[in-house]
Design brief:
The protein has 369 residues and is α+β, with helices and mostly antiparallel strands. It has two domains: 169 residues, Tetratricopeptide repeat domain (Serine Threonine Protein Phosphatase 5, Tetratricopeptide repeat, Alpha Horseshoe); 160 residues, Sandwich (Jelly Rolls). It is built from ten helices and 16 strands. 49% of the residues are buried.
Length: 369
C-alpha cells in the first residue's frame, strides 16, 4: 500500500403539446402501468454509471460477528432482527439501524440507507452512514463507496453520504484513509470533508457541516451537471461482476405496486435498485424519470428529483422521456429557488420542444417580472 499523502488541491464547487408530448406521455404511461414493456431508447448513448452491481454469496464469505447490531433492516421482503448475522447481499436499513462488528465498527443509518454486504465490506449505495471505528479495521470489516475503501487505523468517527451519483466523507474524529482504485491513498483528518470523483477529489475544512442532509450532499444542484461525480471508480469492479440475477421487469412491477399502495419511499427504493442493478437498460433509464417524479411530488425532495432527471438526460438526451425529464428538472430548480438555472433550462426546453403542452406555462414563468 502506498504511503498516505496529503491532498494538495483546494476545494471544488461541490458536491432530467403536440406529437412529441403524446409520445412522451405514452412512454410514461407504459413505465407506470405496464411492467412488461421495455421502452426503447437511443442506444448510441451510454447509460449513467451509478454503482457496483449487487451480488448474492454465501454467508461464510463475511467476517465472523458481522451483524445487524441495532434497529430495523430488511433483506428483500424478509425483516431482520438485531443480532442476526449478515451474509452477502443487499440490505435496506431503516433510520438509526446499525450494522457492523460489536466493539470494532458501527455503521448506523442517519435516515433510510441502502447497502450491500460484500465480503468484509459494507458498501453504501444510497443514504448516509455515521461510522464509528474503535481501531484498526482493515483485516476485519470496512466501508466502501463508489470503489473507494475507507479504513481507520485508530479510533475515529465519520459520516459517509451518497445521493444519486454523489458521495461525501466528513471526518468528525480521528483519521480515515481513503484507498482508491488507482492505488492512490488519501488521509482525511478530523474537521475535513472529501467530495468528488476519485479522479478529481477535493478536500475542504468544514465548520459544523451536517452531513446527511439533502443540501449538503447536493451542493450547488443548479449548476451544470456535466462534471458531476459519476461512480467511475466502481466501473471496473462492476464490469467484472456478472449481471445480477434480479429481473428488471419484476423490480419495476414491485416499484409500481409500492407506488400504487402509497408507499412512496419503498417505491423510490425499488426504482433505485432497478437503476443500480440494470442501469444499462432502457427500462432502468426511464425509471430515472419516475424516480424524479416521486422526489418532486410526494417525497418533496427537489434536489434529488433534479439529479434523477439529470441522470436520464445524460444517459438519453434524445430519449422518449427527454421532454418529461427536462420539464421535471425545471420544476425542481424552481422549487429550490434556483431561478437563473431554471431560466436557462427553460430556454433549452422551448428550443427543443416549442409545441409541448408545457411550453405556455414555461413561457409565462420566463416572462414574470
Amino acid at each position: 500500500t502506498p504511503a498516505a499523502e496529503r491532498p494538495r488541491w483546494r476545494p471544488l464547487l461541490l458536491i432530467g403539446g403536440g406529437l412529441t408530448t403524446a409520445i412522451a406521455a405514452a412512454a410514461s404511461w407504459l413505465l407506470l402501468v405496464a411492467p412488461g414493456v421495455d421502452v426503447q431508447e437511443d442506444s448510441s448513448h451510454e447509460a449513467p454509471k451509478i454503482a457496483a452491481a449487487e451480488v448474492e454469496a454465501p454467508t461464510e464469505n463475511t467476517p465472523k460477528g458481522l451483524a445487524l447490531l441495532r434497529g430495523d433492516a430488511t433483506r428483500g421482503a424478509r425483516p431482520l432482527a438485531p443480532g442476526d448475522a449478515l451474509g452477502e447481499g443487499p440490505l435496506a436499513l431503516r433510520p438509526e439501524a446499525c450494522v457492523g462488528v460489536a466493539d470494532l465498527l458501527d455503521a448506523c443509518s442517519r435516515e433510510a440507507a441502502e447497502v450491500t454486504i460484500r465480503g468484509a465490506a459494507v458498501v453504501l449505495h444510497e443514504g448516509a452512514l455515521a461510522v464509528e471505528s474503535a481501531g484498526p479495521s482493515a483485516t476485519t470489516v470496512w466501508v466502501e463507496v463508489a470503489g473507494a475503501v475507507l479504513l481507520s487505523d485508530g479510533p475515529s468517527a465519520y459520516v459517509i453520504t451518497v445521493e444519486s451519483e454523489r458521495w461525501a466523507l466528513t471526518v468528525e474524529r480521528g483519521e480515515v484513509r481513503v484507498r482508491l482504485d488507482d492505488a492512490r491513498e488519501l488521509l482525511i483528518r478530523a474537521g475535513e470533508r472529501l467530495d468528488g470523483p476519485p479522479s478529481d477529489l477535493s478536500v475542504d475544512t468544514y465548520e459544523g457541516i451536517g452531513a446527511g442532509s439533502e443540501t449538503d450532499a447536493s451542493a450547488d444542484a443548479g449548476t451544470d451537471t456535466t462534471g458531476e461525480m459519476q461512480a467511475d471508480a466502481g466501473a471496473t469492479r462492476r464490469d467484472s461482476v456478472a449481471r445480477p440475477s434480479s429481473d428488471p421487469r419484476k423490480l419495476l412491477a414491485d416499484a409500481q405496486a409500492l407506488r400504487g399502495a402509497g408507499d412512496y419511499r419503498g417505491a423510490a427504493s425499488a426504482y433505485r435498485r432497478l437503476i443500480r442493478e440494470h442501469g444499462d437498460t432502457s427500462i432502468a433509464r426511464t425509471a430515472q424519470v419516475s424516480l424524479g417524479q416521486l422526489y418532486l411530488g410526494p417525497l418533496g425532495a427537489p434536489a434529488r428529483a433534479q439529479r434523477a432527471f439529470d441522470a436520464y438526460l445524460r444517459g438519453a438526451p434524445s430519449g422518449a422521456m427527454a421532454e418529461e425529464a427536462l420539464h421535471g428538472k425545471i420544476e425542481a430548480l424552481r422549487r429550490q429557488k434556483k431561478d437563473s438555472a431554471a431560466d436557462k433550462a427553460s430556454a433549452e426546453f422551448l428550443r427543443r420542444f416549442p409545441k409541448s403542452s408545457y411550453a405556455a406555462g414555461i413561457r409565462r414563468q420566463l416572462d414574470r417580472p
